[in-house]
Queue: 2 jobs
Job 1
Amino acid sequence: MSGIDSLLYGIGLAGVAVNAASGVLEAGRKPFDMFGMVVVALAAALGGGTLRDLLLDRTVFWIADRSFLICAITAGMLTFGAARHWRLPPQLFLLPDAVGLALFTVSGTKIALALGHDWLIASVMGVVTGVVGGILRDVLCNEEPLIFTGTLYATPAWLGALLLAGLTEAGATSAVAALAGGSFVLITRLGALRWNWRLPTYSARR
Amino acid sequence: MSGIDSLLYGIGLAGVAVNAASGVLEAGRKPFDMFGMVVVALAAALGGGTLRDLLLDRTVFWIADRSFLICAITAGMLTFGAARHWRLPPQLFLLPDAVGLALFTVSGTKIALALGHDWLIASVMGVVTGVVGGILRDVLCNEEPLIFTGTLYATPAWLGALLLAGLTEAGATSAVAALAGGSFVLITRLGALRWNWRLPTYSARR
Amino acid sequence: MSGIDSLLYGIGLAGVAVNAASGVLEAGRKPFDMFGMVVVALAAALGGGTLRDLLLDRTVFWIADRSFLICAITAGMLTFGAARHWRLPPQLFLLPDAVGLALFTVSGTKIALALGHDWLIASVMGVVTGVVGGILRDVLCNEEPLIFTGTLYATPAWLGALLLAGLTEAGATSAVAALAGGSFVLITRLGALRWNWRLPTYSARR
């Protein structure tokens, strides 16, 4: 692997680990046992990429490379063990989670572009890879998906994916497009957390 | 495309748009933001056909033809904008939703028949195409699926799909079978709405 | 089919029927109608094997062999009919459900091994086949998944799948490995029911 690919692979594993940890922390508010925790962790860490691969008719990534599966199980169980001994504030994971969102979005978009899909499908696949895990996590916990209500989360992912796809179509090298798109996702997400940026809502119960 | 195919394609796009609108109206009872609305709209509009294509190992229809994806996103955002300014009663969508159910059922059944599946699998695929979107919409909104409790919805779809498959096996032309099956779904669904037809239930809390 | 294969096939059908019945009994606590019951029954009976087949890129088992679909629909409707006339205690199904869990785990693990996957992926597929149906059933009923909170359920499945995969790699015949793994699942699950074995949990609301 080239330098940029090794870096992306490493950040990908880190993203899986962080999402698995976020699954355990979320499920910790429920009376779930260790198995339930691990299932929620796996759904949060692997769900988005799995749906992307099923939709694109690729071999599911954690079946093609077991490292992601082992990483998700290990991170889930370590977080479970740690959370029984220390009080882990969910905020602890916001920074690495933003890194994971950026990486997942970049990898999902690049995979779809490499298969020959256009900017629209590719950017949707980036968003699917980035956010479906968090939706599955909340559905399994029987709660309304957090990312439907909180500070900007999927919007940075979608805009960053569009930027990546646009730069690629404009002739930028793969590394430049990935770095630009990923940085955009990361910075916008951190800005949303810092300044509480939100999308408009409406309530039908007026 | 022949005349009947163009017509079915146009009604298919209309069905996608109506289902996306119904997703936004349903999600409007929750404190979801615009992104959450669009995700629920996409799940409602594309979920049934996506599951059908995954089960039948076909290319997912909105990846093969982006028009359906663009149509669902556009309809979802327009409904979101409209619902912020005017009070849209959900009843407004019952008639076009019935048309969408009929069309989705016909297209799902015909696709499975064309792949060589028999009447049983084909009719199940018709029902999957017609109703899974509505189930996904309600699961994402953390509610019990409406179609499990209300007036007849899936039953007309299944009977219409069986009629379509039976006529095809009996030698009817594709257009006749599609029109007969689709009309049956539409009329029975409208009848169920008008006269409040329901299936039997039981309560285990006796 | 050889003797052992016929036996596994028969127990597989029985597992599908029992899971369909458990879906109806679970959904019976909700005001669902007959169609809702049947959908929950199908999700409970076929969901795990369907996800396994999608992940492994195989033809979905109930499309390849309609017997499983017919069996699930029939069992769901018979249970619905019976439950309207008699009070069926859910405990009635615990023994056949344990048999179904053992069989589903064995078949899922064996299918993945036969496709050339290693012990880790194969054992995960065994667990997916055994437990995803029950998770889907509870998500559709808008409840927290029971198997995340109760007596040991997935852990016996995973240990039995590991035993099966280990014995196969050690050179045991297919029948011996299947019987050893399946018996382990069954006996451990029954022991968990009898002596209330549970995994550790933690509550984040300390």
Job 2
Amino acid sequence: MKTVRQRQRLAPSKRSQLILDAALQLFGTSHYSIVTVREIALACGVNVGLIYHYFENKDHLFRSVLAYAVGQLMAGYEERRGFSDSDPLFDLGIWLDVHATIAPTLTRMVKIMADYAAFDVRDAEVDRLVADFYNHERTVIERTLKRGIAAGTYRSVQVKKLARVIGRNLDGIFHASASRGDNRIAADIQELREFILSFLGVSQD
Amino acid sequence: MKTVRQRQRLAPSKRSQLILDAALQLFGTSHYSIVTVREIALACGVNVGLIYHYFENKDHLFRSVLAYAVGQLMAGYEERRGFSDSDPLFDLGIWLDVHATIAPTLTRMVKIMADYAAFDVRDAEVDRLVADFYNHERTVIERTLKRGIAAGTYRSVQVKKLARVIGRNLDGIFHASASRGDNRIAADIQELREFILSFLGVSQD
């Protein structure tokens, strides 16, 4: 009888996830235009051919990476929803918690978004992914504020304005954390939380 | 008599500024690793040799571009200081005004900082420039808050915490404006200003 040595086989979904993780890491620390499919294959230990089995080309992989990162945020948020009733920030509290939990993914996600936005090439699907992400964030924040104001938990504030301030603050935390070099993402999110509660009159700062 | 056609000659400082402007534009929309000195020369209509006359190499040019952008912010701020006494945000108001005035420069500056921070190569002088920028910003914000609190113009707040919230908000405005695609930098800065005044108890929001 022959002994057959088999390479460990991963389920297809696991293999594509492996590729997406490596691509997110490379696109998110370098730049789309200089990362090659070969480098991504090397980074996750698969054949280049396997990457092309799952993804048509580098553009398709890039879009998939962005969808993958945004998807992690959305899924984490949906999983936890409904368990937030003791949090005075309701769904916004969940949104912030998920940001803290998957911070490295989000740091790379916003880097990819910024690279894409600064570049002069547009792609309808990437545009839609980015817009969906910001629309979703705005909805979560505004709905939370309206709910709290209606319940009398928060003082009355200008919802759209405060929602923008909160959204930009989250942007600042994730986009600039590496430049600031202070490794404060969790602390920054906690500070943002306290700050919102103080502004809404729920707590003293 | 021969007619001699002369190329228009710029003063050396003007010429190096021309190069820095083109390099800021290219580094700030593409990525350090793919921008070539030749492209920069093309973009500003000078010989590659002239660029190497002013800058040793691409690294030196990159550092000079960052220093040039940070320098514009600092100079704009210093020029206007002392004319802020009618602004309830004092020096911080000036700081915000200068940001609005040179917004395109700062958008590219933070993009360059983010690219550099995400990349795995460190340069002591670039690190120092970035740290100086953030230290300067923190000093302006904290000094303003302390002054206003001491004068009784602002309610008493936790200075360091609020300074970080304001700094991250500015980061969010400049880093994410392109991703948000809403072309709101001036409006965002105005909103941040109103928001700070409201938080400090100077105005109702």
